[in-house]
Amino acid sequence: MNFIEFFRLALASILENRLRSFLTMLGIIIGVVSVILLISMTTGFREYLVRQFMGIGTNLIIINPGKTETKGLGQPGFEGVQKMTTGDTMALRRNAYALESVSSITVGTADVRYVDRERKVMVIGTDEAFVKVINIGVDSGAFFNADDVNASRRVCTIGYTVKNELFGSRNPLGEIIKIGGAGYRVIGIMEKKGTFIGTDDLDDVVYITVSASQRLFNTDKLFGLRAKARSAVMIEEAKEQIRIILTKRHNNKEDFTILTQESLLSSLNSILKALSVVLAGIAAISLLVGGIGIMNIMLVSVRERTREIGIRKAVGARRADILFQFLFESMLISLIGGIIGILIAFIGGIIISQFLPQVPPIMEPWVIALATIFSGSVGIFFGVYPAYKAAQQDPIQALRYE
Amino acid sequence: MFRVLKMVKGLRLVMKNEPLILLEDIKKIYGSGPTQVNALSGVNLKIREGEFMAILGPSGSGKSTLMNIIGCLDRPSEGRYLLDNIDVSGMKDDDLASIRNKKIGFVFQMFNLLPKQSALGNVMIPLLYSGVDARERKERGLQILRKMGLEGRWHHRPNELSGGECQRVAIARALINRPSIVLADEPTGNLDTRTGEEIILLFKQLNKDEGVTLIMVTHNPEIANEASRRIYVKDGKIVEDTAP
Asked: For labeling, which of A6, A145, A307, B40 is most exposed (least CB within 10 Å)?
């Protein structure tokens, strides 16, 4: 007998017991659907994170005060962390030639008021280099320039949400808004950025000059620096230059942390990978349960068909013939279940992406291949024992079986 | 086809004049120690090509065991069994399966047809295990069903056929691979008298016209009388043989 004959025999038997075969497949279907969807959803989420992180800017380097990563270099400081100032920004601009631009950042919240409307928003103090470092553009008007920064002019640009909330449909350009009680002229509106990882509204922001913000919050320290390397290959070099220059300025102490998008992503990636393995593992348990269901049904089927086995053996079926007959059946049940599962997962993925357009599940081909191979092997693995039992039947006993 | 086969078989018979089946001191022992049962205790038997033989005997006499051994479903504990000059007494299960496939056709009391297969599907099963391709299987299946007078019934399942028709399907299945012998175990046991007679008539015809060697186990002396040779089995031994 060749494989096509075994395949036909198995298919006929599956179609003969449609309901039973379908119920047996259900275990496999559920397992395959959950494995594929969970993996695709974590993949989709990872892609989303990559997009978000890469969307901030290209070749971005984040410098924050305080040491969160230790490298064994330098002794741990007993004194407090030295504050980061605009002096650091200047030093980097002068000396770190691997950097294209450097920008100071302060962050705070303040009440922003226009006539009778008031709103608590995030106030970012920065300088003219900000729009070069961060991937953000001005929708209308202009971002403040070096003159504005140096002269600490009370000008601001506002995010999309702030514009909508305070001005509605009116044109805010040239209007005066009050930030923490002081008046600022609106000179620009930033383009819409949406949310970051589904939490912060990046448009609910007001940008003012760093000097104005230091006055507003009454401090001279910065939240951090944002820099842009000249090219992707210069990122490592830029990091080293930043480290040397800032360490020298900070009494030879490395009391700051340099992060890149890649380093942030790689740590997130490893967390997500672990998560997807755990989730897929849980889903795989349902495949295992499905496999046990197949084994159970096949054992029942072998018993039910004892007489058939006897007849087939009497007319010349060898052990392998009987073995493959039953093995093909269990394999086909789980393979069909696997294919139905893939189709349902595919439809499920489309439905999920309708509800979560930000984070659409991404079904990679290897996941589908894995699901197919996995479901097929579940059928073989759990089909071997019943098939072996069938093949071992003694024809005389089997023929007598009622 | 059958005629050619018959000629070939006849030629061989003339040339060799050897028995188709030769049993030499066959013993079959089940269990051991105090629970030991001697189902067969020294059977010697020669069956020639073209014979129509009936095996008679009370239940528990060992005739079923003898039948199983002749049919290569079982192996003797002791003794030698030559089928078509091949020693099959020590063969492995899979080799015996091949022997059954090619040389032996079975007809059972309960018909033993697969209930979910059509008459044609049932008849074709032995060919499946001898590697005959699907087209030839169907051709030969339809041909043999026609011969059995089941021309228009090939697509019916056993539950749509009468007892007599079922037994004809079973006989067709037994004959499809042109076996050396056909073994029938109480072939009329599940049929009414008239249908039973028809089946016996069919057997006689096959034996006479096609030269099919037939061995039939039966309780019924009347049916046994239709055979050309009768052996009586009692307590694991052949106690009477009508062979000339």
From this structure: A145
